[in-house]
Write a structure and sequence with these properties.
mainly alpha, 246 residues, two-stranded antiparallel ribbon, binds iron/sulfur cluster
Length: 246
């Protein structure tokens, strides 16, 4: 399903319905997260691919992690998928002296409770950056996927507080919002917590208590302490309802 062929509304409705079907079909299966997130990532990548055709080339390159000092938010499925991934790679990394949980905890000491605009001044690197590369790249959140720049110099200047505006790719940001909102709407309909959470804090919670994933599935808002509320949840819920009925 592509945004190109459909309107943004049709795209949102179709994807929301697909996420709902996945949730209903896999709720009791360990493969729920894989199915939800593979659908989200594939839909994002395919649509960004078609929507950016003919536009200037991005200036993002492997090894540049300038934007990885910004605050990252993620939905509960993304947080729990990352927690699974980190548990799986931890034994291998520990042999090389790398302790991802300790790195997240250290970053969280600096970032916990710091709002989005203040995070720019804090300039705390994401705990997953190693030699300029994201070590969780294949399972990185939609928020990271949706940030792509046409000008690396502008990113660096913005990170050092010299300018405010960065020429980000509009299709990346728009499609990330559509995909994420469609998933959040489906999670809400399924009766599970559908908020956005600050990544360091929520991930640490998920890593430290393996039962949280199951409790989230049972409807408990287990990551609430890390919730980001820049948009009023009631307003978001009303918008989702309007979009579903439109
Ligand atoms: S998860 Fe990866 S892409 Fe996202 S901010 Fe961290 S290092 Fe950067």
């Amino acid at each position: 399903m592509s945004v190109e062929a459909l309107s943004s509304l049709d795209f949102f409705q179709g994807l929301q319905s697909r996420f709902g079907q996945i949730f209903a079909g896999f709720r009791q299966h360990a493969a729920l997260l894989d199915n939800l997130l593979l659908t989200a990532w594939q839909s994002f990548e395919a649509n960004v691919g078609s929507q950016t055709q003919g536009l200037p080339e991005l200036d993002c390159h492997k090894g540049c992690a300038t934007c990885c000092t910004l605050r990252v938010t993620a939905t509960a499925p993304e947080v729990f998928m990352l927690a699974r991934f980190i548990r799986a790679v931890t034994p291998g990394l520990q042999k090389h002296g790398v302790d991802l949980r300790a790195q997240i905890a250290k970053a969280n000491e600096v970032t916990c409770g710091v709002g989005e605009s203040d995070r720019i001044g804090v300039r705390q690197r994401c705990p997953f950056i190693a030699q300029g590369v994201c070590v969780v790249y294949q399972v990185r959140p939609l928020a990271c996927r949706g940030l792509a720049s046409y000008d690396r110099k502008a990113c660096a200047q913005a990170a050092s507080g010299k300018i405010d505006e960065i020429p980000y790719s509009e299709p990346h940001m728009r499609i990330r919002s559509l995909v994420q909102n469609a998933m959040q709407s489906a999670l809400r309909d399924a009766g599970v917590a559908w908020a956005n959470y600050e990544l360091n804090q929520s991930l640490l919670m998920a890593l430290d208590d393996e039962s949280l994933e199951q409790r989230w599935l049972q409807g408990e808002d287990v990551l609430k302490a890390a919730q980001v509320n820049e948009v009023d949840p009631a307003e978001m819920a009303a918008t989702f309802d309007q979009l579903k009925l439109a």
